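REQUEST
  id: r-88c1
  op: predict_structure
  target: EVE domain-containing protein
  payload:
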Amino acid sequence: MAESSGSNRPESEWNGRDWYVNFGERSPSRNWDDGRRYGFVAAGGGRWYSDSLQELPVGGHVFVYIPKSGYVGIGVVTGPAAPADEATLVVDGRPVPFRSLDLKAPYIHESEGTDPHEDHREWIVPVQWTHTVAREDAFRIPGLFANQNSACRLRHRFTVDTVTSFFESDPDRESDSALA
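RESPONSE
  id: r-88c1
  status: 200
  body:
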């Protein structure tokens, strides 16, 4: 099934709340299992990737997509973006430095530190998951919005409604409380 860029789809006026987040796993630098377990989204490897992620506002609703898999989670942003080396997440009710978590991926890029004018760091945004699925259970059908940006305003009403319905229709889908 081909991914579409969303460029020819009708857009609604943005509601000021919904965001698309691309949780790219193309390189071994990040892993959805970590984001799902600890409550975060991530992007990095250059400012083109991390700048849009840094725009996610506290309280924003995120619809998380893994390229070539589909939508894997919806949740609410609970804190501002921070570099992985400085990020702290709330785990079991207490703040834990991101780098001290038992992670499957390194959240670092080989290019870090090579260009003083470029920010190659991985950035972390904390999220309280409403619903998530494993990548192999991702939701993907023709017509859903998807693009290369790490994050962008989600104006495509069909995607918002369809993905929300998918996650809310099955009580067996895991919510944040089931992952803890």
